[in-house]
Amino acid sequence: MVATNIDPRRYRGVVFDMDGVITDTAAVHSAAWKRLFDQYLAERPHASNEDHQSFRQADYADYVDGKRRVDGVLDFLGSRGISVPRGDADDAAGLETAHGLGKLKDRYFLEALAAAGALLFDDAVPLIESLRERGIRTAVISASRNCRQVLRRAGAAQLFDVRVDGVLADRLGLPGKPEPAIFLEAARRLDTPASACVAVEDAKAGVQAAKAGSFGRVIGVARTGPPSRLLQAGADVVVSTLSDVSVTTSADRRLSEVADAHRCWDEIALRLRDRGLVLVLDFDGTLAPIREDPTEVVMPASTRDVLQQLSRRSPVAVLSGRDLDDVRRRVHLDELWYAGSHGFELASPDGALIAHDVGDSALLGLDEAERHLREELKLIPGSRVDRKRFALAVHYRNVRLDSTDEVLSAVDRIGRTFPALRLAHGRRVIELLPDVDWNKGRALRWLLEHMGLAGAGAVPIFAGDDYTDEDALREIHEDGIGVVVRSAEHGDRLTWAHYGVDDPSSLTGLLARFVSLAADPGRS
Ligand SMILES: O=P(O)(O)OC[C@H]1O[C@H](O[C@H]2O[C@H](CO)[C@@H](O)[C@H](O)[C@H]2O)[C@H](O)[C@@H](O)[C@@H]1O
What we know:
Number of helices: 18
Number of domains: 4
Keywords: Hydrolase, Magnesium, Metal-binding
Bound molecules: ligand L263DTV3
Oligomer: single chain
Shape: elongated
Protein name: Trehalose 6-phosphate phosphatase
Pathway: Glycan biosynthesis; trehalose biosynthesis
CATH superfamily of the largest domain: HAD superfamily/HAD-like
Strand content: 15-25%
Function: Removes the phosphate from trehalose 6-phosphate to produce free trehalose.
Number of strands: 23
Structural class: alpha/beta
Largest sheet: 9 strands, mixed
InterPro entries: HAD-like_sf (IPR036412), HAD-SF_hydro_IA (IPR006439), HAD-SF_hydro_IIB (IPR006379), HAD_sf (IPR023214), OTSB-like (IPR044651), PGP-like_dom2 (IPR023198), Trehalose_PPase (IPR003337)
């Protein structure tokens, strides 16, 4: 199951296609087209270059879905080697022109509509209502001239601030999909730039239109059949039901609910087709398995090998909570970018160092807190104070369970006496960090901007296992691919990841798949 989120802080409008997304009218349209074309092809005298086989479901998706009636007639008949004159709007229904045949299709559609049962998809109203409750404005678009009647018949007209349908498009002279004009008109009427709008579409031509209009995000809806058709057309993500679209500012999926990356490989590969990748990876618990003693952690040689191959094809960075030098030594690959102390210090492959300006009070605070904590915790067996340049970690993995609270409350109490510091929790570790607006998410974005992406449109990929990695997973939730390395250490916690893997060795397997993809980006 693929799920996605619309973050109300990032988007102010959502433009929904109607047929097949909001209303179950695609089947009504499809049946009307089939009735028209089957009848027309059966009656038309045969010619050697023409294909008169009956209208198929795939023809609906390929030639008429989402298009204006006249274009649908011309495109489908054209695919069968048949050309009819365009005609004009006054042509009688059934006349052998695109307008005449389109009018007959409309008659069949209205007959079928009158006989149809419930029209609204059950999953549409809850999503639209939750968008509106959170202040996101909604628009509906349709190439259909019957959009208003369908919405009324479905009882859905009040769900939208704006409607751009076939009637308005004709009046304004807007070209149909895959041109972006109808989508852009909807965004304009929502008073919102397309980049701050999400488009929700089930048709290939519609996805292409929204993409061409530079919508902030294009969500494909494939209620039946594989997502590949819409991913290939440019959808950022494809869901099978609108119930898989949430509207929240916080992560809302549990580790156990995140789809397995290996099982979803075809979908990931399709998304990356013909695009570059840029990888940013956490270290402990992600590239290297967790050990009792942090100083004994070793990254497997097979992982180093895969990272090296990856870095020959795509930019790769390691973004760790460890000290910069520490993580660099353990990974031991000169061609990578590195960020240490949760991103407060960064280094490029040529060795240039960049440190975040955290201010003297934070650095002095870390020095003081270290002194106090070493003194206070020296009598608690198993506790370990680890000073990094921009952080102070207190490990309690080896502390007896009944003394854990003592460690945590000491760090909490001492940390609070330094206003320039904040607390961060990790896997059996609690840390003090400079209390500035910087975290792994900000550092990740900085890296992406400076790593010299292999061409525009490269997809950022981040993998991590811990709470602090969630800032990075959240940062690329909209434009990248996030992978969480699952562990049971924090229970079935919430995550921003799109996919999961079971452990670091499974992540290495996934990275190896990225190697083959980066070697041959056209492959899926
Ligand atoms: O961002 P990361 O690269 O994941 O670093 C986070 C912390 O990782 C290390 O601690 C963790 O791994 C240890 C070794 O396996 C384990 O003993 C500990 O319980 C884990 O929390 C590292 O020692 C810390 O400095 C990092 O902040």
